[in-house]
Every structure is written in structure tokens, then in C-alpha cells.
Design a protein that fits this description.
Blueprint lengths: L9 H24 L6 H8 L3 H8 L2 H25 L4 H14 L1 H10 L5 H28 L7 H17 L1 H4 L5 H17 L3
């Protein structure tokens, strides 16, 4: 620590912890009840804080929603970024993507099903997340295309085929895995199927 870097005060630490708890509670509440049903009052009650505390940290419900989506995206993309730096294969990157989505499956399912109804700023945040994830998957795919292990194809088709497959199962989770994690049940099977589709013939 440099001499001009001051340690955080107890108040600063408590403020950061409160903010983190509000975000975690919001992820759970949005995943359980949906973005359109959950209010800031619901999040305050579920987290054990006052309604005023939520607004002290986020200002508006839209700001809270945008922050929660952004935090989710950072967590997913951080792991993919670490993998991309080690030049692992496409399957490894897709597997890490699956694992990240599985950890937040109820929340992400709500994003998929209610995304078009979100405020514009939140939708832009979601688009930025997909852009980042697509970039990392594309990097891994390009290496394998050059090596000849998967067939040449436009990156947008490769990514959209993968994400479309995942989204179809999530949106129809009541058909594929009622009351369970659809990605836990079918994730590896979907991954195997996708890799078979893109393999160089």
C-alpha cells in the first residue's frame, strides 16, 4: 500500500457491504419473482434494510436494476476473460459460460424472458454483456477455425446458435426440467451437441 493510500474507514466498509447485500438480494428476488413484479420496497424488506437505504445507494429502481445486470455480466465475463488469456479451447470457454449461467440461472432466465420489457438503459447493459461474452467465445473459436478443428463460419452465427440453444431451453424450462435447473440437467448434452454441429467435417 502506498503512503498516500488511506485505509478504508469502518463506515466505508459497512457502506460497501450494504450495497453488496442489496445487489445479492436483488439478484435473488428478481430471479424468484421477475423484474416487473419486484419493487425496491420488496428488496428492502428481503434484505432487512429500510426503503430509504436502497435509494441512498441506487437513487432509482432503474439504477438498481441496471447495476444488478451489470454486476451479473461482470461476474460471467471475468471468468471467460481469464480463460481466453490462457488460450484454452472453445469447449472450455463454453463450459465456463454454462457454469456461470448455472450459478445465476433463475436470474438469467428472467433476463431472457423479460429482457424486451426492461428499461432502455438496462437493455443496453444486457446487450453490452452479450457483446463481451460473444467476443471471448469468438476468440476461442477463431483459434480452432485456424487450426481446422471447427469449420469456418461467421462469428455472429456461431454465437447466436449457441446462445439461442441455451435460451430455448431456459425459456421452456417448465417443459424440460420442471422445478429443477435445466442447465444442470441438459447443459453438457447441449454443449456436446453444439460442438458436434461446429466441428470441421
Amino acid at each position: 500500500m502506498s503512503s498516500d493510500t488511506k485505509p478504508k474507514s469502518l463506515r466505508q466498509i459497512q457502506k460497501e457491504q450494504t450495497r453488496e447485500l442489496l445487489i445479492e438480494t436483488a439478484i435473488e428476488e428478481y430471479g424468484r419473482h421477475g423484474f416487473l413484479s419486484v419493487t425496491t420496497a420488496d428488496i428492502a424488506k428481503a434484505s432487512g434494510f429500510s426503503h430509504g437505504t436502497v435509494f441512498a445507494h441506487f437513487g432509482t429502481q432503474e439504477a438498481l436494476l441496471e447495476t444488478v445486470i451489470e454486476v451479473f455480466g461482470l461476474r460471467i465475463s471475468r471468468r471467460l476473460h481469464e480463460l481466453a488469456a490462457t488460450r484454452v479451447g472453445l469447449r472450455d470457454v463454453l463450459c465456463a459460460h454454462l457454469e456461470g449461467l448455472m450459478e445465476y440461472e433463475p436470474f438469467y432466465t428472467r433476463l431472457v424472458t423479460e429482457g424486451r420489457l426492461l428499461p432502455e438503459s438496462a437493455r443496453h447493459t444486457l446487450i453490452a454483456i452479450h457483446s463481451t461474452i460473444s467476443h471471448h467465445i469468438g476468440q476461442a473459436a477463431e483459434i480452432e477455425i485456424q487450426a481446422g478443428t471447427i469449420g469456418p463460419m461467421p462469428m455472429h452465427l456461431l454465437y447466436n446458435t449457441w446462445i439461442g440453444l441455451i435460451h430455448y431451453y431456459l425459456v421452456n424450462n417448465d417443459l424440460f426440467a420442471p422445478g429443477e435447473s435445466v442447465l444442470e440437467r441438459y447443459g453438457i448434452e447441449l454443449l456436446d451437441h453444439f460442438m458436434h454441429l461446429v466441428q470441421s467435417k
